[in-house]
């Protein structure tokens, strides 16, 4: 027996009170119940004195009834708190939440579930107040399917998830109005892993998808001219080369370089040089076909990817660009800036191991055009194309 003022503590059980303090772990909502019980004189088990563990005179000893009353009040408080917490989480969530039990009946949902699909409660037959608890999940599934781009695939996946409780789901769901939802679903398990239902979460990720699309476009765009950049050109070139190998259709490349561009920068400055690059890009874009890809590869060097175009057709296209650029004028104060372009043309041949093989020949042809005096188009002279 301890003699340091804590005699009797070793005999306490969960729920005993000592000096008005309970040894039971408190749950949310329990503290108020305990205080109310104490004010009424009900203190659970017989209180213990500091000295001998002997009940104090005058204290209530009807411990069975008071203990049950206390437990009922605590349990009621816990249930109220749990219900309030779940309701608050449901309505504060940015997700549409749907909980379905093992029989396919709706056990819980929030208002956001209607909003995220754009469904009015009036559309749900028999439930104009919008409370679907106890209804079969199809009352919400039917109007939702009307808003989904691929309802058949959506329904197949839903049925597969219901059929296999071990499956989880995390995917994107495109809607017919252009928005995109993110869907997450997980089975609910009770004692011993028994399947008791499934919870579904739907979140509108349209803004995120738009941002991802914008960033993807920017990563493939030249910031100065607004046309495709080197990365875009080589990515598309590899795809077109693979397509050419499958179909046998012609594929040609044109390399372009603005003549004496350094002189423009040296005389009028880099700001004017940037204007020339922008004007040049706009001029060439206006002369190309919709199927042509035009990109800035670096500095004053540009490339054109001409799908379904043989060597003669690519040469004619490059000539049209050269003549069009020759007519361009740019005013800088009282000065008129004129410039020209040289081009080299090559086409993919059966012996090429990659698209870069033909691109190197186009680059070599460009060098030949420069060496021959500029403002001209040269075609490849090596014959890997044959």
Q: How confident is the prediction overall: mean pLDDT?
A: 84
- How would you sum up the major sheet? 5 strands, antiparallel
Strand order of the largest sheet: 4-3-7-6-5
Q: CATH class of the largest domain, anyone?
A: Alpha Beta
Strand content: 15-25%
Q: What overall geometry do the principal axes of the alpha carbons give?
A: elongated
- Provide the CATH superfamily of the largest domain: Reverse transcriptase/Diguanylate cyclase domain
Number of domains: 3
Q: Measured on Cα atoms, how large is the radius of gyration?
A: 39 Å
Number of helices: 11
The computed structural class is alpha+beta
Secondary structure: helix percent: 40-55%
Distance between the termini: 105 Å
């Amino acid at each position: 027996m301890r003699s340091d003022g804590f005699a009797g503590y070793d005999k306490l059980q969960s729920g005993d009170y000592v000096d008005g303090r309970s040894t039971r772990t408190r749950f949310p909502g329990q503290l108020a119940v305990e205080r109310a019980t104490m004010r009424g004189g009900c203190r659970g088990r017989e209180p213990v004195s500091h000295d001998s563990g002997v009940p104090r005179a005058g204290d209530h000893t009807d411990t069975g009834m008071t203990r049950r009353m206390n437990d009922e009040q605590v349990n009621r408080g816990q249930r109220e708190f749990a219900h309030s917490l779940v309701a608050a989480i449901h309505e504060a969530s940015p997700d549409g939440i749907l909980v379905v039990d093992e029989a396919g009946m709706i056990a819980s949902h929030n208002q956001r579930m209607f909003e995220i699909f754009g469904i009015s409660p009036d559309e749900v037959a028999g439930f104009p107040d919008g409370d679907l608890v106890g209804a079969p999940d199809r009352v919400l599934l039917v109007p939702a399917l009307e808003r989904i781009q691929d309802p058949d695939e959506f329904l197949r996946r839903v049925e597969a998830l219901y059929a296999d409780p071990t499956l989880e789901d995390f995917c994107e769901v495109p809607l017919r109005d252009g928005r995109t939802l993110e869907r997450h679903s997980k089975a609910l398990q009770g004692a011993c892993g028994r399947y008791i239902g499934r919870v579904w979460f739907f979140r509108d990720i349209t803004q995120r998808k738009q941002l991802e699309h914008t960033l993807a476009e920017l990563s493939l765009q030249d910031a100065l001219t607004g046309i495709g950049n080197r990365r875009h050109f080589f990515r598309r070139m590899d795809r077109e080369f693979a397509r050419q190998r499958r179909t046998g259709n012609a594929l040609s490349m044109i390399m372009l370089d603005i003549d004496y561009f350094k002189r423009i920068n040296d005389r009028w400055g880099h700001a004017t040089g940037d204007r020339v690059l922008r004007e040049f890009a706009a001029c060439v874009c206006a002369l190309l076909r919709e199927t042509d890809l035009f990109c800035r590869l670096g500095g004053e060097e540009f490339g054109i990817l001409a799908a379904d175009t043989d060597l003669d057709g690519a040469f004619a296209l490059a000539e049209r660009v050269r003549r069009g650029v020759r007519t361009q004028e740019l005013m800088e104060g009282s000065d008129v800036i004129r410039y020209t372009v040289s081009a080299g043309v090559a086409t993919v041949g059966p012996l090429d191991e990659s698209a870069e093989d033909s691109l190197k020949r186009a680059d070599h042809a460009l060098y030949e055009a420069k060496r021959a005096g500029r403002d001209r188009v040269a075609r490849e002279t090596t014959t890997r194309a044959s």
